[in-house]
Amino acid sequence: MAPKVSLTRVTQQEIGEAVRTLVDAFTGDPLMEYLFPEHRERPEDLSRFFRVNLEYAVMVGEIYAAPCMAGISVWAFPKDVGRPVLSRQEDPRLRLEHIYDEGTYRRISNLSRYFDRLHREMLAGSYFYLMFLGVISTQQGKGTGSQLIRPLLERADLKKAPCLLDTMNERDLAFYRKHGFEVILEHMVCKDGPLTWTMLRKPQE
User: Fold this and answer.
1) What share of the chain is helix, strand, coil (3-state, %, to 5)?
2) What is the mean pLDDT of residues 110-114?
3) For the domain 8-160, what is the CATH superfamily, name and number?
4) HSE-CB for 33 with a 13 A CA cutoff
5) Strand 195-201 to 182-188 pairing
6) What pLDDT, in 10s, does the model give residues 40-49?
7) Are 143 and 1 in contact (CB under 8 A)?
8) Which pLDDT value is given to residue 141?
């Protein structure tokens, strides 16, 4: 077992550092290859994509970092009445329409609407949603990912709340199963998109 690490809560001022970690971690991810097919432009596209999403997560969710920003976990808490509710004008993700070309923005917005609808239909009450989990390439396989998600899983158990995630990377399935997640749906988000696994973790004693 990897030694326990001390996680820190990422603030608005630290988003830039967290973005660099996620860009490194997700450059070859099937979802990002689908959203941003131009290889040369992908690092910059990813940087802008993660910055907007982390700005959103700081406002309504929680972001945690391993020491030296070796890894980042990004959580949202849908249907939690104690969380802020943003108006459309307040939502940083509104900027995506002006950041990307029409085709890229259409892919992003189609996926976002699809998952929002899917999740609403799957879970009636509040739940923990793992938006992103990324570890820099030089630290992968050393236990950092486990250290990043374990505290939130334990908190979910105390609240008797389920945890949900979506992954397009098949090699991640074994990792998440180790932490109590099970595949509840294997699906194609769209005909030209990557195969997706939606995974649920029920509250554990």
Assistant:
1) 50, 20, 30
2) 94
3) Gcn5-related N-acetyltransferase (GNAT) (3.40.630.30)
4) 11
5) antiparallel
6) 899 999 999 9
7) yes
8) 85
The rounded distance, in Å, linking the Cα atoms of 147 and 6 is: 9
Q: Which amino acid is at 147?
A: Q
Cα angle value 190/24/187 (rounded, 5°) = 20
pLDDT band at 1; cut points 50, 70, 90: very low
Residues found in the chain: 205
Q: Which of 62, 52, 126, 128 lies closest to 90, judged by CA?
A: 52
Instruction: Tell me the one-letter amino acid at 132.
Output: F
159-175 pLDDT per residue, tens: 999 999 999 999 999 99
Instruction: Show the DSSP H helices in the chain as ranges.
Output: 15-26, 30-35, 42-60, 96-99, 102-122, 144-159, 173-178
Scan for tokens 């967290």, then name that residue. 18
Domain boundaries, the chain: 8-160
Tell which residue, 139, 138, 133, has the closest CA to residue 179: 133
Cα–Cα nearest to 193, from 88, 111, 131: 111
Q: What is the pLDDT of residue 39?
A: 85
Tokens read off for 161: 């709340």
Span 7-30, average pLDDT: 96
Both structure tokens of 71: 């890894």
- Only one residue has tokens 């910055």, namely 51
Pairing mode of beta strands 163-167, 182-188: unpaired
pLDDT digits (tens, 9 = 90+) for 114-162: 999 999 999 999 999 999 999 998 888 889 999 999 999 999 999 999 9
